[in-house]
Amino acid sequence: MKFSIAAMAAAATVSLAAPAHALTVIASPVDTPPPADQFVIYDFDGYVAPGYTLTLSGAAGTFDGSLGLFPGVAAPPPGTTTNYLAIRAGGAATLDTPLISAVSVYIGSPDAYNAIRFIGLNGFDETLTGAALAGGAFNGDQTIGRRMTYNFGSDRVTKVIFYSTGNSFELDNIAVATAVPEPATWAMMIVGFGLMGAAVRRRRQTAWPAAYAHA
């Protein structure tokens, strides 16, 4: 029986093409810890998880939360006394990641002009602004701080862009959930690897010199 590697690849592709799910947003009323399936990758106090990069451009930088409000510039997310990120008008912070299935971030005083863009596999490209990214709370109320969780369902994201058209977009403690194959996908991958191994062994046996066949 012959196995076509192309056919196996096609079968694996079909198994991976799970139905797409809409981006979902979950808001906490305060700065709660990240969900159990997530881990912090940036805290803006010096910790950066391996494999992740955050590139700042334009009017974006870190501020010391212990210094309090910078009028017209930035305000620390409620309760923050350490460093946080403030993205001012025209600034951006681009997070490049391995495949992730969710991201969460602590956002302070969300504004209508704040935005987050998610870019991933298979053309996934979604942007949330204002009330949509903050779970309904915005307009710069400096008493509001929320840990926002963005779940991508079956989609996988590799880039998250935080940006703002006004002063400012303040955030802290970015966490992610890394993407892992579904159990059915793992099963298909294991079967596929087994079939490929069998095909390779069969070719080796066929190519073995006839003189040694009965040695």
Note the beta-strand portion.
35-45%
The value of Rg in angstroms is 24 Å
- How many distinct domains? 2
CATH topology of the largest domain: Jelly Rolls
Task: Give the count of helical stretches.
Answer: 3
Which architecture of the largest domain would the CATH scheme give at its second level? Answer: Sandwich
Report the average pLDDT across residues: 81
Principal-axes geometry comes out as: globular
First and last CA, distance: 26 Å
The CATH superfamily of the largest domain is known as Galactose-binding domain-like
- Helical coverage, percent range: 10-25%
Structural class: alpha+beta
- Give the strand tally: 11
Detail the poorly predicted runs: 1-20, 182-193, 203-215
Largest sheet: 11 strands, antiparallel
N-to-C order of helices and strands: HEEEEEEEEHEEEH
Briefly, what CATH class of the largest domain?
A: Mainly Beta
